[in-house]
Amino acid sequence: MATDIIRTPEEARRFARVVLSDILAYNGPKIEKGLMEDNLFESLRDELYEGELYYRSRVEKGLCDSTNFFNMAMVDLLIKSKGGLKTPLW
């Protein structure tokens, strides 16, 4: 079955959050450790790379290039959601 390309900002924003929600669900302890050690993006490099590739494979190229929904979802779900965590960063 062919997968439809996402063409609207609302759908792209929602899809970015789905992709990052999966990364959060499967990597909770790794995310917390990355925040504690101030190396979150390095420790999740492979997961974030694969997630972004998947996001870009499903969202129309022009929409990907003109928005930053994936990065916004990354901040909201991987960082802001852990705001109560006692880290040396905040």
Detailed description of the structure:
- The protein has 90 residues and is mainly alpha-helical.
- It has a domain at 9-14 and 28-81.
- It has helices at residues 9-26, 28-36, 40-43, 45-58, 61-66, 69-79.
- It is elongated and about 40 Å long.
Topology:
Blueprint: H1 9-26, H2 28-36, H3 40-43, H4 45-58, H5 61-66, H6 69-79
Helix pairs in contact: 1-4, 1-6
Summarize it.
Helices cover 69% and strands 0% of the residues.
Q: Rg, please?
A: 14 Å
Q: Topology as H/E string? A: HHHHHH
SS-based structural class?
Answer: mainly alpha
User: Approximately how much beta-strand content do the residues carry?
Assistant: under 5%
Shape: elongated
- Helix count from the secondary structure assignment: 6
- What's the count of strands? 0
Most strands sheet: none
Task: Considering the chains and any ligands shown, give keywords for the structure.
single chain, 90 residues, 69% helix
